[in-house]
Each structure stands twice: as structure tokens, then as C-alpha cells.
Amino acid sequence: MNSLDSIDDNCLILSGKNPKIFFINQKQIFEFFNEKNNSYNYTYLVRDTCEINSFLIFAKELQMIFLIKERTDINLLKSKNLGENLSEKKLPKEQLNLTEWIYENLNSKFVVIDLQSITTNNIGEIISVQMNSIKSLVLINSSDRVLRLFKYDYDCISQYQDYFDSVNRKKWLNAYFYTLKVNNKYQDLIVTALSDVNSLEFILIDIQTGNFIKRLEPFKYQCSGFICHYLNHFTFILISNKKLFNIVGYFVNNWGAFAPKLKYIEENIEFIEEESFFDDFNKKLKNPPKKIIDKALIKEIFKNPSMNNNYINPNIFFKYQPIEEDPVSLQSQRDLNEIFQNFNEILEIYKR
To answer: Which of 177, 239, 258, 280 could bridge to 132 as Cys pair (CB 3.0-4.6 Å)?
Structure first.
């Protein structure tokens, strides 16, 4: 298994039996291990971190994570302390042997800073690895049908959360990090899908709480893979029976049992009520206060036209022709009449 990932415009990471970095401009290859023939025949997935010359190496078949960094005096000391205290990790024999092999065969420019073993009762392997945009979270999908979320913080890798289908034990198809913008705030989610032979069900998981915040209705066909954009698009591209499908969704507000005259707002509005605000509150709901209008400004509008203009009656400011049997038009007539009366003006009504 080989896969390509880019670090920048100049570097490509090649994962596989013998992982390496290819520098495009210099046309040079950097190999992570000195021994070209991997005696354990394992596959390694390599991802770069948010730090320069720092990488995560995932042993696919043994479900292990190794954090390697550039060799410095401080990092070398950390690596020695880790090697001397491997017994505290309580690794199985195969994982311990691989760790010792990596210590001996890792390229001399790097040292092992930390390692993490994925504990599982079933024999399995890593299917896919995803990292969020700032590379602080690692999401691993394994063949034992468990999604595992890890946190990467400087020199430490720690397991944060597990996700699995406790009812039907369906397998996770793919999993991606997803950032959703709601009410000018961002929410970090995991977009994944449960799959079996007959259906596919998309699920959105809140990273902070671990709750399944939304489930899309199952699709009645088999799916072999899907992808999504990491930022607020809510669109999936999936492959099923050699066809591409584009699924687009929209988040909408839920209806609620609000009292009359109340409505949803996009953001919280600071409101400081008076002591008597809740006195006769029901009455205020039925008769809400009217908006205050600056009459001085409106009076400028209602000034009588100049006599130089060709007006038959200078007191007539506006001519209105309502549409009969139209409730909106008739209500407009009443509103205009009220406005004109407040300013001692005349509204001329034309009827058909």
C-alpha cells in the first residue's frame, strides 16, 4: 500500500513499506529507515505535524503511532528516557519488537519522542488516518469497527475518544474532520458514515461532547467510499456501483413552541429590563409599543408645494388609488389616512 501526501509545494510524503520524502525541486529522496528491506514487512503511513521536521508514523498492521522529531540534544534525551521506560507502556511482544527495530533503523537525523499503542481485543489494522487543519487532532479508522480520536500536543500523543456503533456494529466507511459555521461561530465536527451491504448512513459527531448531533436517512445502496470538503460546504461525493453521486444538504432551524410575538434570533441580544417590565406582560404582548417616529423630519416631507408649481389644490399632497377588494391595498389606504391626519394634511382618494 502506497499513498502520497504533500507537505508543501516542494515536498511529497510517500507512505508504504519503505516510507520516504521526495523533494521535487532538488529531485532528492529522503528515507525514514536505514534498512531498505523491512524485515517485519509492515506498512507505514506517514503524516507531518504542525512543527517543522516532525512526523507521525503509523504502523498499519500493528496499530501503533510513533512521533519522530529532528535529532537535537533535547530530543535525544527525551528519546533515551522513552526507550529506558518502555516497560511502562506494557506493549505486546510484536509491538515491542517493532519499537526496538525502529530505534535501531530510524534515519540518524530523527529520534523517537513518543509512541502510542492502540489497544484492541480483536486482530485488526489501521484503514485510514485523518488530521484536522491545524494538525492537533488525529482520527484513525480501524478494521475493528472503531473510530479513535487522538490529541497531539507538542511532544505527547493521547487517546481522546472512541466512537462505534453499539447497536448494529456496522463498520465506519470513511471519516473526516469538518468545520461548520453556525451563527458566526465555528463548530468542529467529524463527518463519517456507517455502512453495510444494503445501506449507508451519514453521521455528524460533535468533537467536544462526542454526541451524534445529526443522522441522515440511510441511502439504500452500497457505497465503496466518500469524501467531503473540510470547511462548511455540507456536500459529499460518494462512489456507488461505479457511479459518482453528489449529496448536498442544508442545516435549518428547528421549529419551537414560542409564545406569540416571539421569534428566533440569530445572535443573543443584550437586554436590561426595567423593574416594571413584567407588570401586565400579557397586555404588552397584545399591544406592543409603537416605534417612535421623528415627526419633525416627516413634517419636512409634508410641506405644501410652492405656488409656482402647477398644483390645482396646494393642500393636496398625495393622490392614492386603492385596489378594491384587495386587503393589502385597503389596509394601506387606512394607514395613509392616519398618517396624513396626524399632520393635518389631506389624502385624495381616487376610485375606479
So the answer is: 177
Is the Cβ–Cβ distance between 119 and 130 less than 8 Å?
A: no
The one-letter amino acid at 141: N
Backbone φ and ψ for 53, nearest 5 degrees, come out as 55, 45
335, containing H or E segment: helix 327-342
Question: Which pLDDT tens digit goes with each residue over 132-164?
Answer: 888 889 999 998 888 999 999 888 899 888 888
CA distance 52 to 70: 9
In this prediction, residue 65 carries a pLDDT of 94
Q: How far apart are CA 301 and CA 318, in angstroms?
A: 11
The mean-pLDDT minimum among 20-34, 44-58, 109-123, 226-240 falls in 226-240
Which one has a higher pLDDT value, 296 or 81? Answer: 81
For the beta sheet containing 147-153, the strands, ordered from the edge strand earlier in sequence to the opposite edge, are 126-131, 137-142, 147-153, 156-163
CA distances to 5, 71, 84 from 78, rounded to whole Å, are 28, 10, 10
Give the alpha-carbon dihedral of 38, 44, 48, 51, to 10 degrees: -60
Cα–Cα distance between 126 and 1 in angstroms, integer?
Answer: 12
Strands annotated E in 249-321: 316-320
Max Cα distance, the chain (Å): 106
For the entire predicted model, the pTM comes to 0.65
Which comes out higher in pLDDT, residue 16 or 261?
Answer: 16
Q: Which amino acid is at 343?
A: F
* Dihedral angle, C-alpha 182, 215, 192, 114, nearest 10 °: 70
Mean per-residue pLDDT over the chain, rounded: 78
Query: Per residue in 200-223, pLDDT tens?
Result: 888 888 888 888 887 877 777 677
Q: Where in the chain is the domain with CATH 2.130.10.10?
A: 1-164
Sheet strands side by side (includes 212-215): 171-182, 185-195, 200-206, 212-215
Q: What is the CATH number of domain 1-164?
A: 2.130.10.10
pLDDT for position 312: 43
